Automatic annotation (TrEMBL):
Source organism of this protein record: Periophthalmus magnuspinnatus
Enzyme class (EC, first level): transferase
Listed name of the protein: sphingosine kinase
Domain of life: Eukaryota
Gene Ontology CC terms: cytoplasm; endomembrane system; membrane
Length: 239
């Protein structure tokens, strides 16, 4: 339990009728959240799998010493599975405690080897991952950029991922760009569009002098086109 016993209490509303206190326990796979007061009831316990957590943050001063958790639990819908964003903020007894918790959670999310004796600080974290986002603003009847700003970029920021966003301006723009850029600067290339932009990126990778290494670059596609058949096929194949 980073910070010792006592846990972390939630952020209070301006005029709370009763303050609630919580104890948080962190394991390698879950965050256990136990409400201590008022009297524990039916919803007093929450078991949050780290596999559903995309990130956390501790806002800088003068903001209160909060630990903010962002996660996307799966929910059922008529066809398949959907995920909805959930946010919880807990008010810590001190900023140092909140920062230790934030560092500890991020270490586990990034796969940093830790033990119960680890002193959690941000210095343990590897550099932020870097993504190159390529957006075709004409995709999805011209709504791709709007979807990117309202849905995609907030998730990327919550996951503490740095990125560079480029809007394509013409046919084969992405192909030419990928053919020339320095790929080691990026951990992955994300296409925010339909199927056509992905074809340009793959062709650009294969036309590079170092194509044998370049084609190993992780490439993702976020379905913001009109049909999105390829993204649908990838998800279906992945179960």
């Amino acid at each position: 339990i980073p910070g010792g016993p006592g846990g972390i209490s939630p952020a209070a509303s301006p005029t709370p009728p009763l303050a609630s206190n919580y104890a948080l326990t962190l394991t390698y796979t879950h965050i256990h959240i136990q409400r201590l007061s008022p009297r524990p009831g039916k919803e007093a316990r929450l078991l949050l799998p780290l596999s559903e957590l995309i990130g956390c943050s501790c806002p800088r001063a003068p903001a209160p010493p909060l630990l903010v958790l962002y996660w996307y639990p799966p929910g059922k819908k008529r066809k398949g599975v959907s995920r909805r964003r959930q946010v919880r903020a807990y008010l810590s007894e001190s900023r140092g405690e909140a920062e230790r918790w934030s560092a500890a959670v991020q270490c586990l999310l990034r796969g940093v080897p830790v033990t119960a004796d680890t002193e959690f600080t941000r210095s343990l974290l590897p550099r932020p991952r870097r993504l190159l986002l390529l957006v075709n603003p004409f995709s999805g009847r011209g709504q791709a950029m709007q979807w990117c700003q309202t849905h995609i970029l907030p998730m990327i920021r919550e996951a503490s991922i740095s990125y560079n966003l480029i809007q394509t301006e013409r046919q084969n723009h992405a192909r030419e760009l990928i053919r020339e850029i320095s790929l080691p600067e990026w951990d992955g290339i994300i296409i925010v569009s339909g199927d056509g932009l992905l074809h340009e990126v793959i062709n650009g990778l294969m036309e590079r002098p170092d194509w044998e290494q370049a084609i190993k670059t992780p490439v993702g596609i976020l379905p913001c086109g009109s049909g999105n058949a390829l993204a649908g096929s990838v998800n279906h194949h992945a179960g």
